[in-house]
Amino acid sequence: MRAPFASDPARARGRRVREEESTFRSCFQRDRDRIIHASAFRRLKHKTQVFIEHEGDYYRTRLTHSIEVAQVARTISGALGLNAELTEAVALAHDLGHTPFGHTGEDALSALMAPYGGFDHNAQAIRIVTHLERHYADFDGLNLTWETLEGIAKHNGPVTGDIPWALEAYNRHHDLELHTYASAEAQVAAIADDVAYNHHDLHDGLRAELFSTDELAELPILRDNFAAVDALYPDLNYYRRRHEALRRFFGVLVEDVISFARTRLAEIDPQSVTDVRMAGQTVIRFSDPVFQDLKVIRAFLFDRMYRAPSVVKMRAEVTQVVEELFPYFMAHTDHLPKQWRKDVEEVDSETALARIVSDYIAGMTDRFALQEHERLIGR
């Protein structure tokens, strides 16, 4: 049953460019479908989650991560009586703005763009779905509903203070009410992101042999998961044992979010989606005990995985790729693709040019960035 505070497609605030809506798809379903068919979504297949895309076919990429986030989000959304299509749309789009090489590439590009307004991957996602995707005859971007754009922009909470230039530029023309919290659907997408990466980064770290199963079995939550598996399946082989324990860990996180959200929603008693936005707090989150346990697990991952010598070495190498591609394209705009050179012809400042170069590099996949670096710079 749909909750009273769920987003209702029949009451959606519409699209910036008016369109005739589908007779067989809701507006939120249409948003989700447009995101899936976007070029930027396909490129996530070859963009880093933790390990650089070419390091192994097994490891998660931004695409597989986004699919897992959408699955978790849909489960939580259904349990809370929310609109699953809007939830899934935000979940699938949440990482569209990521650069090649994940957060390493973003850090490098952000430093390079500091004189020109900076770079933020969440704001870049808005730029992609409102400007950079150019497939439709009547508009740039995907012309998503206000609710989906709001969710992409502020699924992590209100955006205040120094607003990233790309988000501020769009918000001037289409007010996304950045000072408020997002819908419950967008909040679900945000917490689903946390659930997914806490789970799959442990999988990938084990696969990369950055830590052992025995070490995982000493961590909070996981300690109980492994004990339960060992009690039920004392002769289980090591591979199935760790997968069964991690499956249970995954379940603990999802169940905790649903249970805590139900408690908070009962206390707040929102009667509309506006009530959720104006609640003054994130409603969909982990309980405090689980959040504290996850801080211990995250510290373990930072020490043993994200800052592992092999990962740090690769981070340094790909940082150099971004740091050398940016000034190269700033100085050699004739080496940009034809459609990008058309945009360059219209710029009237160095900042405008830098933002075009930033858009181009941010859209690259890992492999394409490496190939272009080798072709153009040769080292």
Automatic annotation (TrEMBL):
Keywords: Hydrolase. Residues 62-198 form the HD domain. InterPro entries: dGTPase (IPR006261), dGTPase-like (IPR050135), dNTPase_2 (IPR023023), HD/PDEase_dom (IPR003607), HD_domain (IPR006674), PHydrolase_assoc_dom (IPR026875). It comes from the Bacteria. SMART domains: HDc. Signal peptide: none annotated. One of its GO terms (molecular function) is dGTPase activity. GO terms for biological process: dGTP catabolic process. Belongs to the dGTPase family. Type 2 subfamily. This is Deoxyguanosinetriphosphate triphosphohydrolase-like protein. It comes from Pseudosulfitobacter pseudonitzschiae.
